[in-house]
Design a protein that fits this description.
Blueprint: H1 2-34, H2 49-66, H3 70-90, H4 100-103, H5 106-121, H6 128-133
């Protein structure tokens, strides 16, 4: 039973985690660049710091949803979220400081470590990486 969980279900659950995390992450990019879902904040200029962040979120999210180039994309997004935490939450933002619950950086930390794990674990059982290159 435990062997079936590890060999059969673990890669499938990894796929589900990848897709859900990528869809939620991608939503940040669609909000910045496409105005969806609507935000009280105006969208950033396309070639500004936040515009580039929106492009990273949108393109990286799409690639992760598909499971295409999962390892390098996840590694880049993990670094992106580490920078987002240290620059946007720890050093600035609404309530700068160390504690994520106070500075609003808890999502950035979770994304960072989920993507970091995916950089090593791959895309899971259902990914274009596996379909095209016959591996994660």
């Amino acid at each position: 039973m435990l062997q079936a969980l590890e060999t059969v279900w673990a890669p499938r659950v990894l796929t589900l985690v990848r897709i859900v995390a990528a869809l939620i992450f991608m939503e940040h990019g669609t909000q910045k660049l496409l105005g969806f879902p609507p935000s009280p904040n105006p969208g950033p200029a396309l070639f500004s710091f936040y515009g580039y962040q929106g492009m990273i979120e949108l393109i990286g999210g799409v690639l992760l949803v598909l499971g295409l180039f999962t390892r390098p994309v996840a590694f880049i997004l993990a670094g992106d979220m580490a920078v987002a935490y240290w620059m946007g939450h720890f050093a600035g933002g609404r309530n700068p400081g160390f504690f994520p619950i106070l500075n609003g950086g808890d999502a950035a930390i979770l994304y960072c470590f989920i993507f970091f794990y995916m950089a090593f674990a791959g895309g899971g059982a259902w990914s274009l990486d596996r379909l095209i290159w016959k591996k994660d």
